[in-house]
Amino acid sequence: MTAMTTGSTSRADANRRRILDIALAELLRDPDASMDQIARAAGVVRRTVYGHFPSREALISTLVDEAVGALSDADAAVRAGVRDPAEAVARSVLAIWQTADRYRLLIALAQRTVTVQGIRERLAPLREAKVALLQRGLDTGVFNSPLPAPALAYVHEQMLFALMEAVNDGLLAAREAGRSATVAVLSAAGVPAARATGLVNEVAEGA
Predict the structure, then answer these.
(1) Checking phi first, is residue 170 left (phi over 0); if not, alpha (psi -120 to 50) or beta?
(2) Using an 8 Å Cβ cutoff, are 74 and 95 in contact?
(3) More confident position, 6 or 146
(4) Among 29, 52, 175, 196, which lies 20 to 30 A Cα-Cα from 41?
(5) For residue 33, which phi and psi values (nearest 5 degrees)?
(6) How far is CA 171 from the centre of its chain?
(7) Which residues, in sequence order, are CB contacts of 68 under 8 Å at separation 6+?
(8) C-alpha distance from residue 103 to each of 10, 29, 91, 140 (Å)
């Protein structure tokens, strides 16, 4: 019985994973993709999708949770062992952008279904790490801003959301957006533009 249960659970988990992967691809292709479309693309009946996710909103919410997890993992990985706060921010934003670029249409969609506040709550652990990093930069004079670190972290977060939307609307070329976004975030923290640009180019080319 245990072996049968384990096998059924594994199949259910595999089905759920496949539905999530297909849903992400479909929503990136068509932000208005319905549950029916997702089911067809996944090669399952509509009831199977609803068996894992009771609503389209629940499916999108799960994808947003996964996106936030990917962002947090990318941020932590590239900042490990980096002592210069400006370099740490540059590495963080570049890594987050590379991950977020895959999810940018999904995040724009989530703002209508999960709500911006819901996304902010999910980003709280990542924001806390960023506040500590910004505070270290402010304390050491690497950053120069009239804003306290928590407010500056919000500014950076909203800048990234806005720049993602600018890419979505065709106002910013996706291939150039990562470096531009990173320079903009560093500039908002008070890093001189020339130094920010040079640092971003150095980090990006050395990645």
Answers:
(1) left
(2) yes
(3) 146
(4) 175
(5) -55, 135
(6) 20
(7) 119, 122, 123, 126
(8) 27, 11, 19, 34
180 phi and psi angles, rounded to 5 deg: -60, -45
| Alpha carbons within 13 A on the beta-carbon side of 65 | 7
Q: Are 20 and 106 in contact (CB under 8 A)?
A: no
pLDDT tier, 4 (very low <50, low <70, confident <90, very high otherwise): very low
- pTM comes to 0.78
Q: Above 50 in pLDDT, residue 207?
A: yes
Residues 199 and 148: their CA atoms lie apart, in Å, by 23
pLDDT digits (tens, 9 = 90+) for 75-92: 889 999 999 999 999 999
- Mean predicted lDDT score pLDDT of the chain: 86
CA-to-CA distance for 185 and 85, rounded, in angstroms?
A: 13
Residue 89 token pair:
């921010």
User: Rounded distance, CA 68 to CA 181, Å?
Assistant: 18
In terms of Cα–Cα distance, which of 74, 99, 78, 100 is closest to 88? Answer: 78
